[in-house]
Amino acid sequence: MDLRHSEKDEQFRAEFRAWLDASLPQEMRRPEFWADLSEEESFQTRRTWEKGKAQDGFAGIAWPTEYGGRGGTPTMKAIYDEEMARVGAPSTVNALGLAFLAPTVMALGTEEQKRSIIGPLLHCDVIWCQGFSEPGAGSDLAALQMRAEPQGEEYLLNGQKIWTTNAMHGDRIFTLARTSTSDGGKRHAGMSMLLVDMHQPGVESRPLKQMTGASEFGEVFFTDATCPRSDVLGGEGNGWATAMLLLSFERGSSAIGQYTEFRRQWDDVVDVARALDRDGRPAAQDPVLRQSLAAALVELECLKYHSWHVLTQTTQGRDLGFEASMTKIMWSETFRRVSDSYEAVLGTAFGVPELGSGLRLEELTSLAMWSRSCTIWGGSQQVQRTVVAERVLGLPR
Amino acid sequence: MHFQLTDEQRALRDAARSYLRDRFGPRQVRALYEDPDSDGVPAPLWQALGEQGWLAVLVPEEHDGIGLGLLDAAVLAREFGAGTVPGPWLGTILVGEALRLAGSPEQQATHLPDLAAGGVRGAVALLRPGWFPSPAGAPASARDGVLSGRLDLVDYPSTADLLVVAAQDGLYLVDPAAAGVTVSPVDALDRTTRLGTVLLDGARGEKLPGSTPAVVQDLLDRAAVLVANDLVGIARKAVTDTVEYDKTRVQFGRPVGSFQALKHSLADLHIGVTFAEHAATYSAHAADVDAPDRQLAASIAKSKAADVSRDATGAMIQFHGGIGYTWEHDTHFYFKRSKRLEAAYGDAAQHRERVARLLVDQAPDSPAVSAVGSEMSAGVA
Lengths: 397, 381
What we know:
Radius of gyration of chain B: 21 Å
CATH superfamily of the largest domain in chain A: Butyryl-CoA Dehydrogenase, subunit A, domain 3
Strand content of chain A: 5-15%
Largest interface: A-B, 46 and 46 residues
Distance between the termini of chain B: 41 Å
Number of domains of chain A: 3
CATH superfamily of the domain at 214-380 in chain B: Butyryl-CoA Dehydrogenase, subunit A, domain 3
CATH topology of the largest domain in chain A: Butyryl-CoA Dehydrogenase, subunit A, domain 3
CATH topology of the domain at 214-380 in chain B: Butyryl-CoA Dehydrogenase, subunit A, domain 3
Oligomer: heterodimer
Radius of gyration of chain A: 22 Å
Structural class of chain A: alpha+beta
Shape of chain B: globular
CATH class of the domain at 214-380 in chain B: Mainly Alpha
Number of strands of chain B: 10
Helix content of chain B: 40-55%
Distance between the termini of chain A: 38 Å
């Protein structure tokens, strides 16, 4: 048992911290700064800041240098996540590209794809969307209907994708479509992963308004859109296997970034509890609310310990396999617990933008709402539990 | 970053596991259930604990011990929980820890070698049942080295050779055979222990000179950490056995483990136990390296382990169906041991309250709490 990082890893932390100190303006660390921006302004501000970060070499931390990465260790990536969350740095505008597409291209892409995709992605010159879910294919991804009909050197795309993050800002979309109909009724056969330009007449994006009022995701409609046949990732007809590999790249994630972010949230919730009156004393003194706050803290700290466990395993070169679906359940449930505490602390004041004392609440409220989505996207809690039961515990199908 | 046991700790775990598999399994546990009038200390088991060095792990080498850390003891506690192992292992370990942390050199030299070898069996009374885990919960009162008080729900007092008792001003060594000490057994549902009440009425105690409130709190935390490890051992065993049973038990023409109602519940339990295992491990390590958050870690571990073990042992009964409610099945060994330990050295709610005292009551910008001081005043208030 030794919870220290190596000297080299800590040296990286010092370097990155110094860079953040110099390059992240104080006002951008305050949640109010973001609450006062429009969605478009917020996106462009984040994109500009992230470009600068990449130019200074703090992107693709654990990716090989040949693909424009920093060539660091998995621990450095975890330290990066931790430091980003610690100072409240803006979240990435290219999350799905970074987490999923890039590692899949590195694993399966042609040389031409690696050269043309990874660099611009890392520098946010190209924003990538993920086109998996459809109105009739949510948890049951294999039910997807979108067609990509081969016609000469192109595919002709028709269909609809939904819940597409950054639909209104996307430049390209990696999307799963049916390229063959002669699959003998096998649901997983005949699919391909296509890399489609979103700036063309046959592609139309529409925003979806979320329960928060924001529109971070949307719908994408394909009407005789085209895609060159060379823009298939992982080979025509191999779409399902490519998608499964792509989704597996979430497995290396240690969740230390999530822990750090939610711990900040918890600390802020405690501040609110100290400021709010409950029965003539601070809500932080109410015995029931104290139990709720402490129970959330217990889960949070357990999430941190688990991230150490994951990091230990990945550093030693072990693949966590399906155990990784536990990590998703853990961090999203923990996020919900912290958010539940916040809602309980606020009571009738839940939803107001600020307290009389001048304490601003928009960011905390928006986090509490956001926590409701995290147990759905990327595989709902219910799907993940089935995966854990069958693939980790070995219970029969 | 190595958040994992060392090779030596894994070897220690494997040794305990294989001993229990070969020599002290459910059949031997059952024998204790069938014979409630026995002293609850199977002689071959106790002898093995001494011979293997499992009573000596925390005793310094200069006193014929092995001089390892709390995490090594925690590794054993977890196996003993999984095996529902009876006997005064914990009491003996805690008497040793009290002497190591607070005893004079003479007291240490007199008692530690015998405790390490198993020649002396220990029992402790550190906290009134139901009280918040702080020195303010001391069950005895002392005046000029003379002790009085009623010590309830003490583990293995009848077979103890040496007691450590907490009074309002610190810890005392008490000879259970001395004048003014009366031990009477109490029947317990969990028969992997033997409970008793100890009446102190003018009994002479020998003060442990280093037993400041901070040391008493430390001892309570160490006790909580070891109990948390016992509980996660129980909880892991409960989940594992239930999963195995539900893979083979067929109803409606299919294994019941194929039903989603059971799957999701077992997946949640598996995740909860995994969290509790991490917390129990870290709490022991935090004590060993004197981490700034060691008190917080102890309370996190105890509250999480208690909740998870309650859920897992309850589910074990439920997901075995009717057979799980019978005397013949082993499910009740785990359930009953869990119930006893869930509340020992502070229950889940009390430890959550302690988390709140450490983190919510602390002024946002104040330096790290010298938590023992605040803990004391909070306990008294």
